[in-house]
Amino acid sequence: MKDMALWNQGDWIAAIASVVLAIFLIAGALAVTRKTPEVAGHPKGLYILFFAEMWERFSYYGMRALLIFYLTQHWLYNDSASNIIYGAYVSLVYITPVLGGWLADRYLGQRKAVLFGAILLTFGHFFMAFEGTGGQNDPTINIFWLALAFIIVGSGFLKANISVIVGQLYPRTDVRRDGAYTIFYMGINVGAAVGTIIAGYLGITLGWAYGFGAAGIGMLLGLIVFVIGKPLLLGQGEPPRPLSKSTELVMYGVGILGVAIMWLLIQFQSVVGGLMLLSGIALLAYVLFEAFKLDKEPRERMFAILFLIALQPLFWGLFEQAGGSLNLFTDRYIDLGGVPAPIFQSINPIYIILLAPVFAALWTWLGRRGWEPSTPAKFGLGLVQLGFGFLVLVWGAETVGVDAKIPVIFLFGIYLFHTTGELCLSPVGLSAMNRLAPKHLASLIMGAWFFATAGGNYVAGMIGAATGGEDGEMTRQGTLDVYWQIGLVAMGVGLVVMLIARFVKRWMHLETLADDDLEGQAEGPGEPQGAGVHPATRQP
After folding, report:
1. For residues 430 and 428, what is the distance between their CA atoms, to the nearest angstrom?
2. Burial of 172 (0-12, 13-18, 19+ CB in 10 A)
3. Average pLDDT of the chain to the nearest whole number
């Protein structure tokens, strides 16, 4: 261990993150060991879910912060190929929750699905620590693909279901539900921020195995917390009907088969893109088929839903540059003051923690005065801010010479506008899906929302690959040119969306929405990401 007098900024940031983590762990231990059935007005089960999810996000985002560097520096893929692998991986992470949620609703129940997912994730993160000698000819790379496959399927079982159990701890009319999701939401983002810092720091300064090993330990701790805390869940999340042992084993077998399928798919990224395109066309055709069977108002609401969903691939395709091309750009061209580049992946979740309450209060304040933008207008605002963030970075690069490092303040700037854009689009979109979807099509619509998010993550890989140019290696000016172009495109589309928002709003027919029309049965917001995407606030 270094003498504290020799610590640099990265050492201090990692130390502070470790102290924050320790404080949360001590507070959690005190909360769940109290003899009262509730703590701070909430059942203890909420805090079990808080820490289980915190550790899962610690491991996921810690690994994500290192992945693009692991691909380029250890497995020796060029920048373009690494971005495509990254995009395919993250897109698959956001498709599998659709299947995981369906299996839990129909057979396993949420608790068993979360437990199974946590086990798969623990194996996946520990497999990531097997480095081998590096290079694409190293047979150990097959363990790497297996690790990604375990994480993809494990996320499908866990992420689709753990937030559902939060809602099950409370009656549907319980006024504490919003507060419960706020607490849970904090756990998600604390885990994302701290995991990114600690795993990223260890991976860069001590070695890949230390960073990925830390992510694995975090996931193992989350699994242990969830198992020990079972009695505090008050019997929630159990199978919807008596589950035979044979059926349960078949469900786990489906999960293991899924790992094998993902092991193949992640190695052939173009196949992933082709399958997503064909599946997307089929899904769109089916949604339209169902929409045209409806009466005029619900049919037009479906058109509004499809309009909003169509904006998802563009938003997340640009937003998810954070873990791919922007991560590489940060490492090579930003003046980081000696701080390891992966640590800067923590900026987004920290901004989320700070700004989500501000946006929640802002929408409420505007709503009371009749000034709140409509849902389509908020989508447009989100796209404009997303695009403007890229322009901020490009302008920042122009303030210094072509050979000089870009001041880090401009990196904080791009993440600021990307985060505010996310808060205008992601939680608002999830709420709109729940509000506008006919009850019998609610699950289909939510599946389409997550599918579009996954598509955006695949697009992110393609855009990231474009920063590599013809030879597959990123250049400073080439990347800035791509960022300038996609920034202008996002802002242009956002302005168009804001101009036509009033017409899309008419399709929503909010004035005639009645309680029976609301899906309203969703137990929680889940997690829209993107990756990258961070969990939504609970605002309507």
Report:
1. 6
2. exposed
3. 86
Q: Exposed, middle or buried: residue 372 (CB in 10 Å: 0-12, 13-18, 19+)?
A: middle
Going by C-alpha positions, the residue among 30, 274, 240, 63 that lies closest to residue 150 is: 63
Residues whose CB is less than 8 angstroms from the CB of residue 514 and which lie 6 or more positions away in sequence, other chains included: none
Listing DSSP states for 230-274 in one string gives GGGGTTTT--SS---HHHHHHHHHHHHHHHHHHHHHTT-HHHHHH
Say how far apart CA 122 and CA 227 lie, in whole Å.
Answer: 13
Distance CA 97, CA 159 (A): 6
Dump pLDDT digits (tens) for 469-489.
Answer: 778 899 999 999 999 999 999
DSSP 3-state of 333? helix
Per-residue pLDDT tens over the stretch 73-116: 999 999 999 999 999 999 998 888 878 888 888 888 888 998 99
Is residue 248 within 8 Å of residue 112, measured between CB atoms? yes
Rounded to a whole number, what is the distance in angstroms from the first to the last CA of the chain? Answer: 49
For residue 173, what pLDDT is reported? 65
What pTM was estimated for this model as a whole?
Answer: 0.87
Q: How many CB atoms lie within 10 A of CB 506?
A: 13
Residue 41 region by backbone torsions, left for phi larger than 0, else alpha for psi between -120 and 50, else beta: left
Six-digit token string for 472: 């597959």
